[in-house]
Write a structure and sequence with these properties.
about 375 residues; 7-stranded mixed beta sheet; 10 helices; binds pyridoxal-5'-phosphate
């Protein structure tokens, strides 16, 4: 278990931010790294051509460590939806084929497939859980010869329902189904190892559980997709781009591995140092320890919630960092706004009041949540 890390953040004592699944607050170290980055751009004579590469490679390597991948397999992107668009461009569909998504899945890993399906005459299939609420079984049951792609998360963004990705990836390989994972709501808190979960593409945004800045994300592309087509044709992704004096000797070859999928201007002078600082800290804490610590926090919130007659998924069915609290009479109108007036911040998503703590939360934050709920009910 990790002790409370609130001192690393800048969160006033009277703010209960139980909303990391919406936006993570930035650590002081991450802000300092961003300020240093802006400072350099203020005085560009401090930025050398080498800097366009070294920081990108440093960040690529850190993210690769997080998912036990080779840095060559990682691309730097602006968002999760950009990553899903790379995957959709490189996994062509045929008429009659199917793409599997979950009911109420976050749109970043849905719209790209909707467009691909429309263009190809393929079908987007929305899966519901089995009668006893099992999403893994629902996916496994849909993996037949028509299923070309399964586009999935590790946990649902509304209620934290967990999927067993090891079982799903093994079944996808047997069925010949490509697996495209959006791990925006789980990387950084749930252990994930790409050598155990053999995905074709993994995409994520950086601004939630990776505790990084907005407008940055990552893609893991499996080796067999690393000769694919990028979304844009930026110069830095081409072979030899290190030599700025020869950029007009246009090259057809790309930088090695998944670097061809990097976004234009990926060497962002303030976002990259911020993300490096955030990932450094996450790796220092250790994802396993973050998970165990947040599991204890959500467990205690779930027990208190039960006393209020609020239900949530059983611990073995949900992600450790996620609680979707259900109200027996439905969610009261303006619930999250009313709680926010008391400086208690949570989200309403689907039918759930989503409570998503991180290491900065304290017992007092939880007390404030229940005091506010008590006043309302
Ligand atoms: C599951 C999931 N994926 C992705 C995102 C963000 O997507 P993007 O980076 O495309 O804006 C969110 C934001 O809530 C999300 O919950």
């Amino acid at each position: 278990m990790l002790p409370c890390q609130r001192h690393l953040f800048d969160i006033p004592e009277d703010v209960a931010w139980l909303n990391c699944a919406y936006l993570a607050p930035l650590m002081r170290s991450v802000c300092a790294a961003g300020e240093w980055g802006i400072e350099r751009k203020r005085h560009p004579w401090r930025i050398t051509p080498k800097d366009f590469f070294t920081e990108s490679e440093q960040l690529r390597a850190l993210f690769a460590r997080l998912i036990n991948a080779d840095p060559d397999h990682i691309a730097i992107t602006p968002s999760a939806s950009y990553g899903a668009a790379i995957a959709a461009r490189n996994l062509p569909l045929e008429a009659g084929q199917r793409v599997l998504v979950l009911d109420e899945q976050f749109p970043s890993n849905v719209y790209a497939w909707k467009a691909s399906c429309q263009a190809a005459g393929a079908e987007l299939i929305t899966l519901r859980p089995t009668q006893d609420g099992d999403w893994t079984e629902a996916v496994l049951a849909a993996l037949d010869e028509r299923a070309a792609v399964a586009a999935l998360p590790q946990c649902r963004w509304t209620d934290g329902a967990l999927l067993d990705l090891e079982r799903i990836s093994a079944a996808c390989r047997q069925a010949g189904t490509a697996l495209v994972l959006d791990l925006t709501q789980s990387l950084g808190v749930l252990p994930f190892d790409v050598t155990r979960v053999r995905a074709d593409f993994v995409v994520t945004a950086c601004y939630k559980w990776l505790l990084g800045p907005y407008a940055l994300g990552f893609v893991y592309a499996a080796p067999e997709h690393q000769r694919g087509l990028p979304l844009e044709f930026n110069w830095i992704a081409r072979k030899g781009s290190e030599d700025f004096s020869r950029l007009v000797r246009y090259r057809d070859e790309y930088q090695p591995g998944a670097r061809r999928f990097d976004m234009g201007e990926r060497a962002n002078f303030h976002l990259l140092p911020m993300a490096v600082a955030a990932l450094d800290q996450i790796l220092e804490w250790g994802v396993d320890r973050i998970q165990v610590t947040l599991a204890a926090r959500t467990r205690s919130v779930a027990e208190r919630a039960a006393e209020f007659g609020l239900d949530c998924l059983a611990e073995d069915r949900r992600a450790a960092h996620f609680l979707g609290l259900g109200f027996p009479q439905g969610i009261p109108d303006r619930l999250s706004e009313t709680l926010a007036e008391r400086k208690v911040f949570v989200s309403v998503r689907g039918d759930s009041l989503r409570v998503t703590p991180h290491l900065y939360n304290t017992d007092e934050d939880v007390e404030r949540l229940f005091a506010a709920l008590e006043a309302l009910m």
